[in-house]
Amino acid sequence: MLSIGIKDAVDILLFAVLLFYIYRLMKESGTINIFYGVLAFIVVWVLASEIFNMRLIGTILDKFMAIGLIILVILFQDPIKRFLVELGSHRRWKFLRKIFHHHGKEAEDEALVWVMPVVYACMSMSKSKTGALIVIEQSIPLDIYAATGDVIDANINTRLIENIFFKNSPLHDGALILAHNKLEAAGCILPVSHDSDVPRTLGLRHRSALGIAQATDAVAVVVSEETGNISIAHRGKLNTRITTTELEHRLNAIAITLAK
Hints:
Number of helices: 11
Strand content: 15-25%
Order of helices and strands: HHHHHHHEHEHEEHEEEH
Number of strands: 7
Shape: elongated
Structural class: alpha+beta
Helix content: 55-70%
Radius of gyration: 23 Å
């Protein structure tokens, strides 16, 4: 007769919590399909090997499990890399930071320093229908994308942002990356999303914004050159035609969350 003690109950509970945490983390990082695939494979493996004692399928799956990790790393190296970076990001362990460090209003003010210059620049460029793509780094470094452009390394300034995206500027076609409260690089090349849900009326800037939002946890703000509409991409989702007030609220919320 199967008996479950306190130790077994704690073991099951810890496994359930770990599974839920991994599910939530992979959902946020856009790698949830990998989670579903691996979970389905493990369920089939347990049923075949342990429950129904299917020797042939069980043996095959046992051999596959032995090399499954290597195969997953080869096939899904970018999503797995992003998942591990997310797992080790300071946001995941912010409760430890709160123990050893005090984060008050000064930390929030420092985190918000880039918000209004970006909002004002987008407001101005929206009125003049100046195309722009601004990417704000979060917990995942954007160094590999910044390296594709020209180093700026300047304080965040509304006028400078507008000048970078001025139509006659050599840097206006690429993306501007903001990191560590600095304008880090301009004219950067970003990964392009091939999501079929993106309307065909949206151009390369919007697909690049969604692409970087799917590949990292960065925030991408787009100003349409055709319509002047403002869009924002974050966590693998693209929201179009937002007002400058909505943009300010969303960027403030993101900046404060990152600072905590």
